[in-house]
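Re: the 103-residue chain
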Amino acid sequence: MVTRNFVVTNPIRIHARPSAVICRLVMEHKSKVTITKKGMSVNAASMLSILSLEALKGQEVKIDIEGPDEHEVLEKIAVLFETNFGIKPEDEFGSIHKDKKGA
C-alpha cells in the first residue's frame, strides 16, 4: 500500500470535473484507491463518493492505494493534483468573468 497527502488547490473545490477525472483514472487501473478527508473515507471509483467529501480549496486529503499498479496510480494522481486536474482557471471562471464584463 502507498499513501500520500494532497492539498486541494482548485479554486472551487474537488467538484464534478475533478471527481470524474479521478474516477476515470481509478477505473482504468487494478488498484483500489481510497480518499480520506477528516476521517471520512470513500472509494475513489465512485464520483458521487468523491463529491460527498466536499473537499474545499486548502483542505488536505489522504490518498491510499493498494494493488499491483499502486505506484503508477499514485504518480498519475500526483500529476492531477499538481496540474489542477488539467483545468485552467479561466475554464473554471470564464463564464462568470464574461457575464460581469458584459453587464
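Helices lie at 16-27, 47-52, 70-82, 89-102.
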